[in-house]
Amino acid sequence: MLRRSILVSCFVAYWLLLFNYESLRAHYLQPLTSRPLPKQALLFPPAGWIMFYQVDPSYGFAEVHGLRSGQSEPIDPHRIFETRNIGYDNIHRNVLVGVLSRSRKPRFCAYLRRKFPEYDGFDVLYGLYPDVVRLPDEVRYQTAYQCR
Amino acid sequence: MPVSPRAWWHRAFLERRPSLSLGLFRLAVAWTVACHMLPSFVQMGDNYLSTAFKEKNFSFFPMFILRLVEVSPDWVVWAFVGLFCASLAAFAAGYYTQRSTVLMTLACYYFYALNSFHIGTLSFDILLVTLVLLCLTNFHGDFFSLDSVGRGKDSSYKRLRPCFLLRLLQLQLALTFFYTGLNKITAGGNWLTGNPYHVLMNYPAIGVVKDFPARGWLAQQPEVSYWLGLACVAFELLLPVALFVPRIRSAAIAMGIAFMVDLWLTLHVPTIFLFLFPPMLLLFIRPERLVAWIETRQARQAEHGRAMLLYDGQCGFCLESVRRLEVLDLFRWVDPLDFHKQPDVAHLHPSLTPERCRSEMVLLEPNGRISGGFDAFRRMSRHAPILWPLVPLLYVPGVPWMGRRIYAWVAAHRYLLHRSRRCGTNQCALPTAGNGKS
Q: Fewest CB atoms less than 10 Å from the CB: which of B88, B140, B191, B254?
């Protein structure tokens, strides 16, 4: 019984230390020590508990346009990623913005070609609302990459 | 009276307390995991197979794991789908609870490593922390589980376990709330210096905010939005404290649940927030109070009269089944009686005969209603919480027909279904075989 209590106590102390360390590491301990600190693999988010911690007036998003006979038409993001989550919509969580990085171009282009064989090519656009409060109707687009 | 640190630590983490809250929490976790993971399996080609668009979480997984998982052929992916579904079902039912928890968690990690694009969210990281904690023990299989039915102890709802797991889950919730609030006002968070709530209300239609009734009005009210934002932060910082103050705990739990429902109604946040956090808040209800509530209901049931279940006490299979039934019958609605020990069964109900009692179990309810065999089981299932999910199924047309036939076959062969040597040749089917329990 005593041995089990010691084991449990050691685990509880370790877990609480780890939990607090990982919660504080990215935004508090690293700036304090001015060096990168090790992260516990396979557990805890990399930057701590940062749900909606910083919300800027600018809003970036991704749009995919399909090209057919020289004409460009936007593709509904719900058709691109058809997974329907229960109780929420991942497209509204801006999941599509993850495709914008150029390093993802080869895999995403291959995915689009498989998914939409009816199109000759695709333009992946980066859209930006510079200020959703002051300029709610202004959207700036630029091409992130093209799939030809 | 001052408490020594050692006594405080013992009370906080080592004290043996009823584990039934963890059993109920297991059901919530199973539901949450199912709701988060299963939809991603509907589009296997988009999400996990070789044709999928995949994203890796390099900050979470070591590179060697990502490489190992990346080379999975499609059949391995399908095998993990099978493993996940089987372990999830076992986990939900509390069957080999610890092993099923480990396997289910392993499958969750596999799919997360394979593609974090859809399932990888901050709330999923919280869920994984919870699952890892649950992997440590089988305490969450003590109650409301097939494991508890298998053990056959009718007091499983008050089984005592060291409370460290319960306490760590409580602390996980409290600390998550606290650090979420703290990050909003320090560490680059702009909830004091800016007006994030107002910005969110003005997000474009494709953004994360749902189109709820007051949204348009709030989008025009920067002042109100600012103070609402600060109220959210204050709530996140204060709730963890309130949860540990006994006097205001009930209100804190209710407000915490309302906060989560509000989040889910207004934002496209994963349902983990709705399905996991409120049950985690309910873990703050003292398990002793739940045990007391169950025992109060049992006492009330005894006052109002219990149903009688007449069974064959000379059949080992029946005795074993009754033992398990007593575990299922949480509120002690049924009083099992060996009909061999009743001098005159007709005295209990005019329509009862020893022959009927010998051919099937008979349920005699306090209101005089009598039923037997499959119908008796169906009646009892309405009073046994663990069987509630089965109740609608038992009334589906065709199921009673099949159930009665299966029951009749089992009843006819009941002496062959148990391990007692004495009854191995069906000898104790004879009414003269004695009245003692086999």
A: B254
User: pLDDT tens across B206-254, in order?
Assistant: 999 999 999 999 999 999 999 999 999 999 999 999 999 999 999 999 9
Summarize pLDDT for B173-204 with one digit per residue, the tens. Answer: 999 999 999 999 998 899 999 999 999 999 99
Give the model's pLDDT for residue B436.
Answer: 36
Name every chain B residue with its beta carbon within 8 A of the beta carbon of A133: 198-199, 202
Q: Report the domain count for chain B.
A: 3
- Whether B259 and B388 map to the same domain: the answer is no
Residue B248 CA to residue B417 CA, distance in Å, equals: 54
Q: Is residue B13 in a domain? A: no
- Chain B residues 148-177 with CB within 8 Å of chain A: 162, 164, 167-168, 171-172, 175-176
Residues B123 and B75 in one domain: yes
- Helix H or strand E encompassing B371: strand B370-372
Distance CA A124, CA A65 (A): 6
Binary contact (A98, B117; C-beta < 8 A): yes
Q: What is the predicted pLDDT for the residue at B317? A: 85
- Let me know whether B300 and B394 are in one domain: no
Interface test with A, best of B110, B268, B269 (most A CBs within 10 A): B268
Q: Where residue B135 falls among pLDDT bands split at 50, 70, 90? A: very high
Last residue of some domain: B263, B278, B304? B304
DSSP H helical ranges for B115-221:
122-135, 146-151, 164-185, 196-201, 215-219
Q: Are residues B172 and B277 in the same domain?
A: yes
Cα dihedral value A140, A67, B117, A59, nearest 10? 10
For position B421, what pLDDT does the model report?
Answer: 56
Please tell me which residue, A6 or B427, carries the higher pLDDT value: A6
Tell me what pLDDT residue B314 has. Answer: 84
Q: Which domain holds residue B73?
A: 20-158
What's the pLDDT at B420? 55
pLDDT digits (tens, 9 = 90+) for B97-120: 999 999 999 999 999 999 999 899
Instruction: Say yes or no for a CB contact (<8 Å) between A98 and B183.
Output: no
The mean pLDDT of B324-343, rounded to a whole number, is 90
- Please say which residue of B269, B304, B339 terminates a domain: B304
The pTM of this model reads 0.91
Lookup result for tokens 């609608």: B392
The answer to whether residue B5 sits within a structural domain is no
Nearest CA in chain B to A15: B168
Q: Do A12 and B200 touch (CB under 8 A)?
A: no
Q: Are B215 and B202 in contact (CB under 8 A)?
A: no
Q: Identify whether residues B188 and B74 lie together within a single domain.
A: no
pLDDT tens digits, one per residue of A68-101: 998 999 999 999 999 999 999 999 999 999 999 9
Task: Give the gap in angstroms from C-alpha B266 to the nearest C-alpha of chain A.
Answer: 10
Q: One-letter amino acid identity for A2? A: L
Chain A residues touching residue B172 (CB < 8 angstroms): 19
Q: What is the pLDDT of residue B428?
A: 54
| Helix pair B97-114, B20-42: axis angle to 10 deg | 30
Whether B30 maps to a domain, the answer reads: yes
Claim to verify: residue B228 and residue B194 sit in the same structural domain: yes
B265 and B359: one domain? Answer: no
Cα three-residue angle B111-A51-A14, rounded to 5 degrees: 70
